[in-house]
Amino acid sequence: MDYQKLLIGSMFFLMGQIGAWFGTNSQLVWKWWADKPIFAAIVFGIPTTIFIWYGTKYTYEAMGELWGPRFLGFGMSYVSFPILTWWLLGESMFTAKTMTCVFLSCIIILVQVMWKTS
Questions:
Q1: 65 backbone dihedrals φ, ψ, rounded to 5°
Q2: Are 82 and 46 in contact (CB under 8 A)?
Q3: Domain count, the chain
Q4: What confidence tens digit (pLDDT) does each residue in 39-98 have?
Q5: Which residues neighbour 75 within 8 Å (Cβ) at sequence distance 6 or greater?
Q6: Closest CA relative to residue 10, chosen from 69, 61, 67
Q7: Residue 83 structural domain
Q8: Which of 4, 11, 17, 61 has the highest CB neighbour number within 10 Å of its CB?
Q9: So what's the pLDDT on residue 99?
Q10: CA 27 → CA 5, 23, 71, 89, distances in Å?
């Protein structure tokens, strides 16, 4: 496995997840965004799609299959979402339910990165 490509792809996924967070949740943080879904889709959606596109490209090249990048992209949302939600909306991730989900997401990432196939 090419760990350099995996790292680069993971960073692209992280940036894409951050873009997705702002694209869908800016309406909750700033009143100005509350009635601008099309503008938010354009401003956040285009760069988010490009980041996730490159994340898929690099992690697919590193892992040689599409399932790994799929779950890695999902798992990376658990890096950005709790931090941004706590920082900008004041919602804690430190509940039993949320911490269990974060733990399971980390397990999913580890399975995809560490489990060798073929």
A1: -155, 160
A2: no
A3: 1
A4: 999 999 999 999 999 999 999 999 999 988 998 898 888 889 989 999 999 998 889 998
A5: 105, 106, 108, 109, 112
A6: 69
A7: 3-114
A8: 17
A9: 87
A10: 34, 8, 27, 11
| 14, amino acid identity | L
Chain-centroid distance, C-alpha 92: 18
Q: How many CA atoms lie within 13 A of 67 on its CB side?
A: 6
Encoded amino acid at 99, one letter: M
**Rounded Cα gap, residues 14 and 47, in angstroms:** 12
Identify the pLDDT of residue 105. Answer: 81
Q: Give the tokens for residue 39.
A: 């503008």
The CB-side HSE value for 3 (13 A sphere, CA atoms) comes to 2
Q: Closest Cα to residue 59, out of 19, 101, 3, 14?
A: 3
User: CA nearest 22: which of 66, 74, 77, 59?
Assistant: 77
Mean pLDDT of 13-22: 97
